[in-house]
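assembly run, all chains below
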Amino acid sequence: MISFSPSEEQKMVITTMKQFATDEIRKIYRDCDEEGEIPESIIEKAWEFGLIAGSIPESLGGFGSEHSAVSGALVAEELAWGDLSMAMHFLSPALTAFPILEAGTEEQKAKYLPLFCEKARKYATAALLEPRFNFDLNELATSARLDGSDYVLNGEKCYVPLAANADLMIIYASLDGDTQGFIVEKGTSGLEVGEREKNMGIKALATYKLGLKDCRVPKSNRLGGEAGCDFTRIQNYSQVALSSMAVGVAKAAHEYALEYAKQRYAWGEPIASRQAIAFMLAEQYIDIEATRPMTWEAAWELDRGMDANKDAYLTKMYADDMVMTVTDRSVQVLGGHGYIREHPVELYLRNGRGFATFDGMAIV
Amino acid sequence: MIDFEIEPQIEEARKVTRENALKHFRPIARYYDEHEHESPEDLIDTLWQDPSLGMAGAMGGGVGGIGPGMVLLAEEMTWGDAGLMLCSPGPGLGGAALMMAGTPEQLGRFMMSYGQGNPKWGCMAITEPGCGSDTSAITTTATRDGDEWVLNGEKIFASAGQRALDNEGGFVVVWASVDRSAGRAGIKSFVVPSGTPGIRVEKLEKKLGIRASDTASLILEDCRIPYDNILGNPEVVVDKAKGEGYKKVFATFDLTRPFVAAMALGVGRAALEFVQEVFDKEGIKIRYGMPRNKLTSLERDYMEMEASWKAAQMLTLRAAWMMGQMSRNDLQASMAKAKAGIAVTKVTQKAVELLGPLGYSRDSLLEKWMRDSKINDIFEGTGQVNTLIVARRILGFDREQLK
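ok done. output:
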């Protein structure tokens, strides 16, 4: 039965995340962006919510709730409303954990998933993007070749969140033309973490280039074992995560612009009293409110085990455009002030532009 | 719980509605587009025999009651044909006003004969030659004279106005002012049954699209109706805290706007499917999952059309769902209407462009759908009026703070 109402449990999660975003993330996000760093203390706090462990079965040490893309989408939106860099940071362990949970062999699950349920925080990530303009996730330049009992990976990756700290990561590579995942542990020979990247936005999140030079991964570490994984489906989880984050960023920008437009006076009245401004705000709001249930529907399809490719892809495409327009219009509402770093809308714009690029950098 | 599963009985009703649309609407859609003001009598009889196949079936939400079912069924009908769907006998928009603001006694009095006898229609008359969206400027007057109201004025753009007045049991809900000095608060709605002396059809409009639907100009000259034909509170309440007189728990628009949005969705989907069929025939595959910079222009256009359609559908379903939940949905209703009106206008216009000579030709229905869809960005409040409503609501501004 069609319903747009989150469950009671989900409502509690939303409230908790919103509170955390308001009380903690929003207090420091501007400094984090300027300094390019997120303090340890808040990373620890975020870990304590058990955002990853909550989706891992009890038998593997988790809290035993069912992994739900819908619930994940709700969390992602709230965290990204707080700050995108931090949302991506806090959820980055999922980049390894959730593909294993969804597509891993029993052996892989037993070996790796308990790590994400420990009290001590784990760094984990995934490497999908490659540094070229015509990057195509279905035709990766990074290659995997079977050699005896190992896969040998070669290529170059970029935008790998927290790679320098990661104990574990999934590296995506082309195996006979198919994109497949490989679970790679820290210190594997041939895995070279490059310099930290300098990006237009998400400046608080450390991302890295990665070099793979005859990087040898045991055969058993191919995600999903010999049968491999359905990469499209993993990608769909990622599209849901990023679309939800786009909704969160857009909402943050819109809210700021709306409040500003009510406070800022010109010709004796708030600028929001002019349709030129008011309509921008209304159109932003309509598109944000439309995108959210689109992400929910794609997530719901995933949770149902349905083919979600079309909806997840179209939603991501729509969300990419939506967040770009909304953040741009938010800067526009503030005019010259929007261009000054005293106001956060320029940050939202820089972050917003990234969504069209961020393939595979978040997952629910 | 967040859920997108359609209940089996609604899914079944949808299927039946679609089959009916294909059988009864599509084959005659072109004919009645090109023969404006002719009446599709056979179709009207069919829809009178089984009202669930026409507008009434969707308005009441069909099997599911008021809620998302309404959207899904209306979509199937206008997927068949929007103009013909609007010919559906039944209480229509006038009925919506009655449902929203009428007393049980009024509902019984005006709606009871629906389902019996000959086909009959309800109609809503708001617009006047001098006012459209600005209903506070309504000049039609209702003056009390003992046990009666006396209506005087001119109404235009009344959908099904002719059918409502020409057939026994029909009625027109007329918006009129009981006190011109009170502005909006003085506007009330009145039920004028067919056969009432003093109301007549002045002319039928010739339109860009939805030509099968009659759009009438009505003249009211000392038109007398019983006192208790007024809908809602007859008192003029100017104090905002008490609510304006004509407002009930839900305003009529909270129902009709999602409905119009759903109508837009049906036409939009027809166009999308038509384009898809041409692609299939030509062996063109839309590649979902490709990087955007590798897509063809055609793929990108088509995907953007699909995505904006989906965005409109989500807002529409949500507005209808909230209504079903008895939640205040005026903001969501306006959002759905604003979005669906423009989204489908653009979808159909783009579809004509994409198909080049095929799209522009009257050999297929696509160009007609483009003309039909435009009305959804206009009636029940233009896209701009609905955007203005959204803006006021999110800003917390009244009509003085945001004009």
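Chain B touches chain A through 46 residues (CB under 8 Å).

The two ends of chain B are 39 Å apart (CA to CA).

not gonna interpret more than that til we talk
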